TrEMBL record:
CDD domains named among the record's database cross-references: LbH_paaY_like
Biological source species: Janthinobacterium violaceinigrum
Domain of life: Bacteria
Gene, per the UniProt record: paaY
Protein name: Phenylacetic acid degradation protein PaaY
InterPro entries in UniProt: Hexapep, PaaY, Transf_Hexapept/Carb_Anhydrase, Trimer_LpxA-like_sf
NCBIfam families recorded: PaaY
Length: 204
């Protein structure tokens, strides 16, 4: 069962086509849209402001979403939030990527088709134009992204769309095996691509 908590009479909303891992925690004013993927141990804490994940967005393992009272924190359509990232009172544009362990602060806006590199710190109020590569602490726009880089990002997000479906249909809690089976199978899925070999994989 997904860990969902009402507070002050406000209950999280999860679309039936979204996958939320049972160890994730959703509190209060949270709206998870269609085809979203919420990873293990994600904390989506809508006890102050509203938190919205639009269609096809993913929020990966140990990510945190929160915001101040009266403010919305939004991940737009196909937004891609890498492992351990923190979003606080910000807006992540359509098809943008926030890399592993990056932090995006209040009133910051990450433009569509942009990438925030892993470990970056986006300060409060920063406005990032579409198709930007954002790097550093504090983060700065380094350059514009190429069409190939945006295609790479979209391919990775497509894998999370598929992962949401695979997780809903095949993931179940089991006992661990005590030995490795002979001819142990590997995970095979339709959209598997060698994305980890791409020059920008560190940003994910």
């Amino acid at each position: 069962m997904v860990k969902v908590y009402e507070i002050n009479g406000v209950t999280p909303v999860v679309h039936p086509s979204a996958y939320v891992h049972p160890s994730a925690v959703l509190i209060g004013d949270v709206i998870v849209g269609p085809r979203c993927y919420i990873g293990p141990l994600a904390s989506i804490r809508g006890d102050f402001g509203r938190l919205i994940l639009e269609e096809g967005a993913n929020l990966q393992d140990t990510c945190v979403m929160h915001g101040f009272p009266g403010c919305d924190t939004v991940v737009e359509v196909d937004g891609h939030i890498g492992h351990g990232a923190v979003l606080h009172g910000c807006r992540i544009g359509r098809n943008a990527l926030v890399g592993m362990n990056a932090v995006v602060m209040d009133n910051a806006i990450i433009g569509e088709d942009s990438i925030v590199a892993a470990m970056s710190f986006v300060k409060a109020g920063m406005i990032v134009a579409p198709r930007s590569m954002v790097v550093g602490t504090p983060a700065k726009v380094m350059r514009m992204l190429t069409d190939d880089e945006i295609k790479w990002k979209s391919s990775g997000t497509g894998q999370y769309h598929e992962l949401a479906v695979r997780s809903m249909h095949t993931m179940r809690e089991v006992e661990a095996l005590t030995e490795v089976e002979a001819n142990r199978q590997r995970l095979n899925f339709e959209s598997a691509l060698p994305l980890h070999l791409h020059k920008n994989a560190a940003a994910q």
